[in-house]
Design brief:
The chain is an alpha/beta fold. The protein has one domain. The strands form three sheets. A seven-stranded parallel β-sheet has the order 1-4-5-6-7-8-10. Strands 9-11-12 form a three-stranded mixed β-sheet. Strand 11 and strand 12 form a beta hairpin. The two termini are about 20 Å apart.
Length: about 300
């Protein structure tokens, strides 16, 4: 996943993890109000856009993070969602990754032909603390999705997912600390415990960043550069890759020149040097330092 699709922008705060929302912070820096929700017209059909040679900008087999600056199941986005689903249907060769704090709305937001789920849609719920884990994950487990996971971010309190991991439904757990104004600390012991639970249940675990404030063995570290956060998280050796590979049974694009994107065979020069320390490399959402940029 080296790219992001934001069909709409803006969100409403709904839980503890929203307190220091990065999107609100960045919008404020631009003189904007993060609570204002609007359709991003020039980007809404991004998965269908093509380059000057007639090829899709998003290649077959790529992971595309959806609504990085909003929530796909936001009530205010109800008028636009059917069209977004239609775009995902047309690009059944692309894997769309959804992350939500609103799983209770999902069942009434699915397309009529959803049935047991689409192979190219990967649903993750956030669980910033135990309260939200116990609130959202049971809903996730009851939903008809072929691929399910949990994002523990911002990781602001100790969380145990043992009983949910035992169901065998969760393919992944991602976690990371909090950034920007008011960032709350992340404790190494919390991450270590969650990592061990995933290992015990053979579920992929990715510790992708420490956040601004990281505490280990009683020592508090202030880490402001996200690249340093990533490297520190990677150096803890807490990441784990399941022995059960995550398989998306998607088809290739109908475009004759399109080949299925394969991360493992992509030329190394595509990725910047620091990406070797990234726990989310295969699910990268295309950070500003990735190989796509000129910097």
């Amino acid at each position: 996943m080296r790219d992001i699709w934001n069909p709409w922008h803006g969100c409403k705060k709904v839980s503890e993890g929203c307190q220091n929302c990065y999107m609100y912070f960045l919008d404020k820096q631009r003189g904007q109000d993060g609570s204002k929700i609007f359709k991003v017209k020039n980007n809404f059909d991004y998965p269908l856009q093509k380059d000057r040679f007639g090829n899709y900008k998003i290649r077959s087999g790529e992971f595309l993070r959806v609504c990085m600056t909003s929530d796909f199941f936001l009530a205010e986005a109800d008028p636009w969602r059917a069209e977004a689903w239609e775009i995902m249907r047309k690009r059944s060769d692309v894997i769309f990754t959804l992350v939500t704090k609103r799983p209770q709305r999902i069942s009434v937001c699915l397309p009529d032909d959803w049935e047991n789920g689409w192979e190219n849609v990967w649903l993750n719920v956030t669980a910033e603390n135990q309260k939200r884990a116990d609130e959202r994950i049971p809903i996730l487990l009851d939903l008809p999705f072929k691929h399910k996971g949990v994002l523990v971010a911002p990781f602001i309190e100790k969380v145990s997912l043992e009983k949910y991991l035992k169901t065998g439904q969760l393919e992944n757990v991602w976690c990371g600390g909090e950034n920007y104004d008011g960032a709350r600390p992340l404790h190494y012991s919390w991450v270590e415990k969650l990592s061990q639970e995933c290992r015990n249940n053979d579920v992929t675990f990715s510790f992708f960043e420490t956040g601004n404030i990281y505490i280990k063995n009683g020592i508090k570290s202030k880490i402001l550069d996200k690249r340093d956060q990533m490297k520190r998280a990677f150096s803890e050796n807490l990441n784990y890759e399941s022995t059960k590979p995550q398989i998306f049974n998607i088809s290739k694009s109908s475009h004759p020149q399109e080949n299925l994107f394969d991360f493992d065979t992509t030329p190394p020069k595509f990725f910047k040097e620091h990406c070797q320390f990234c726990a989310m490399k295969k699910q990268c959402a295309g950070c500003s330092k990735c190989g796509k940029c000129r910097g």
